[in-house]
Design a protein that fits this description.
The protein has about 375 residues and is an alpha/beta fold. Strand 2 and strand 3 form a beta hairpin. The radius of gyration is 20 Å and the shape is globular. The protein has two domains: about 190 residues, Nucleotidyltransferase, domain 5; about 180 residues, ATPase, nucleotide binding domain (Nucleotidyltransferase, domain 5). It is built from 16 helices and twelve strands. About 40% of the residues lie in helices and about 20% in strands. Strands 1, 2, 3, 4, 5, 6 and 12 form a seven-stranded mixed β-sheet that branches. Strands 9-8-7-10-11 form a five-stranded mixed β-sheet, with helices on both faces.
C-alpha cells in the first residue's frame, strides 16, 4: 500500500510530507520512501499557532485555526499525491498545540492532548481516506500519548544480536531503547527532554536578524558552554522524573527560555546557545545505556554539527561505546523519519491492528491509535484489505 504521512512537530517550522510504499508479511514490515518534502508555514499561520500556544486565542480563533491547519495539511498531501501516483491512504499527525498527560494533582484537569489540522479538509481535497488524531486513544488507556514512533522503531530498527537506541531530535528529543532480540515487553521509550526547541527560541529571541535557528550549529560552535548555567538547567525536575514521560513546550518552550535568561547573568547570545546545545546533548547521552552498541539518530537536530559533536563527546565521557549513526543507513531519511512513522501508524490502524507499545507510553494496554475519516476510496480500500 502506498501511504502519505504528514507531520508538523514542536518546532513548528512547517509540514513534513512523505510518500511511502509499505509492505507487511506476518511480523515483517518494509518501507520504501518514494518522495519527501517540507512545506513551510506561512508567517500568518505560524503567528496564529503561536497565539494559541501563548493562550491568547479565543475559542472562535482556535476553531478557525483547526480548519486553516487542515487546509494547509491538505495542500501538502495533495502535492505529495501529485508527485507519487497511487496513494491509497493518508496519516496525519496534525500540529500539537497542547499536551498534558499528567496534570498537577491540584489542577482539577483530566489528562488531555490537542492536535489541530482538520482531517476532513484533507479528505475533501484529495478524496483519500485519512487517519488522524493518533494520541488520544493511548491517553484514554492511561498512557502518555507519546512517543508513538516507538512502535515503528520496534518494527524497523530491532536487532537480534545487539542493543540499540533509536534517537529522534526534533523540537523535543526522544529515545526508544531496543534491547537485543527486542522482546516487546522490554522495549522502553520516552522523551529525554529538550531537542532543538529551546535552541531555536534562543536564536530567534537573541539574534532576531538571523535565520531563526542555529544553522549547522555555527552559533554554538562559536560560543562557550557556561558550566554554572548548565548545572542549574540540569536540575529541572523533568530530568529526574521516571519514565514513561513526555515533554513539550509546556516544559521547554518560551517559559523555560525566560527562566534560562533569568539565570544567564549577562552571557553573550552565542554562549547561551552553546549552553542550551550542551543541555540537549547531555540529557540525551544520560539516557543511552552503557551496553548500547548503536544509536540510530534522526530528526532535524542531526544537521546541527555542534549538537552531534557534543553528543559524541558526552557518550565517550559516560564510557558508552555505541556508534552514533544516522537513520539513512537503515533506509530512513533523517528528516523524513517521523512522517514515515505516521504513514506506518495509519497503515496499521486501517488494518485494525494495535499500533502502540503500552510499555513505552505507560498505557494499560496497546490500542489502535488514530481516527479514520473515510474518503471516496474507502469502500474500495476496505475490499482490498479485507476482501
Amino acid at each position: 500500500m502506498k501511504v502519505v504521512g504528514l507531520l508538523s512537530g514542536t518546532s513548528m517550522d512547517g509540514i513534513d510530507a512523505a510518500a511511502v510504499e509499505i509492505d507487511r508479511v506476518d511480523d515483517a514490515l518494509a518501507c520504501k520512501l518514494e518522495a519527501f518534502e517540507t512545506t513551510p508555514y506561512s508567517n500568518e499561520l505560524r503567528a496564529d499557532v503561536e497565539r494559541v500556544l501563548r493562550d491568547e486565542a479565543s475559542v472562535q480563533a482556535l476553531s478557525s485555526l483547526a480548519v486553516a491547519l487542515g487546509q494547509a495539511f491538505a495542500l501538502a498531501a495533495k502535492h505529495m499525491c501529485d508527485r507519487s501516483e497511487g496513494v491509497q491512504l493518508i496519516g496525519s499527525h496534525g500540529q500539537t498545540v497542547f499536551h498534558e498527560p499528567n496534570p498537577a494533582d491540584d489542577a482539577g484537569r483530566l489528562p488531555s492532548t490537542l492536535q489541530l489540522g482538520e482531517p476532513s479538509a484533507i479528505v475533501e481535497l484529495t478524496g483519500i481516506t485519512t487517519v488522524a488524531d493518533f494520541r488520544v486513544a493511548d491517553l484514554a488507556a492511561g498512557g502518555q500519548g507519546a512517543p508513538l514512533v516507538s512502535y515503528v522503531d520496534h518494527l524497523l530498527l530491532c536487532s537480534q544480536s545487539e542493543s540499540r537506541v533509536a534517537l529522534n531530535i526534533g523540537g523535543i528529543a526522544n529515545v526508544t531503547l531496543l534491547p537485543a532480540g527486542c522482546p516487546v515487553d522490554a522495549v522502553r521509550a520516552y522523551d529525554t527532554g529538550p531537542g532543538n526547541m529551546p535552541i531555536d527560541i534562543a536564536v530567534r529571541a537573541l539574534l532576531p536578524d538571523g535565520p531563526g535557528y542555529d544553522r549547522d550549529g555555527a552559533i554554538a560552535l562559536s560560543g562557550r558552554v557556561d558550566a554554572s548555567l548548565l548545572a542549574k538547567l540540569l536540575a529541572h525536575p523533568y530530568f529526574g522524573a521516571p519514565a514513561p514521560k513526555t515533554a513539550g513546550r509546556e516544559q521547554f518552550g518560551e517559559t523555560f527560555f525566560r527562566d534560562v535568561m533569568a539565570q544567564a547573568d549577562g552571557l553573550e547570545p552565542r554562549d547561551v546557545v552553546a549552553t542550551l546545545t550542551a543541555l540537549t546533548a547531555r540529557t540525551i547521552a544520560n539516557e543511552v545505556p552503557r551496553e548500547c552498541a548503536l544509536v540510530v539518530a534522526a530528526g532535524g537536530g542531526v544537521r546541527n554539527l555542534a549538537l552531534m559533536a557534543a553528543l559524541r563527546q558526552e557518550l565517550r565521557g559516560r564510557e558508552v561505546r555505541a556508534r552514533l549513526a544516522l537513520s539513512n543507513e537503515f533506509g530512513l531519511e533523517p528528516d523524513a523519519k517521523e512522517a514515515i512513522a505516521f504513514a506506518v501508524l495509519a497503515y496499521e490502524a486501517i488494518h485494525g491492528r494495535t499500533n502502540t507499545l503500552a510499555r513505552a507510553t505507560g498505557a494499560r494496554h496497546p490500542v489502535v491509535a488514530g481516527k479514520i475519516v473515510p474518503g471516496s476510496n474507502f469502500s474500495a480500500l476496505m475490499r482490498s484489505i479485507f476482501g
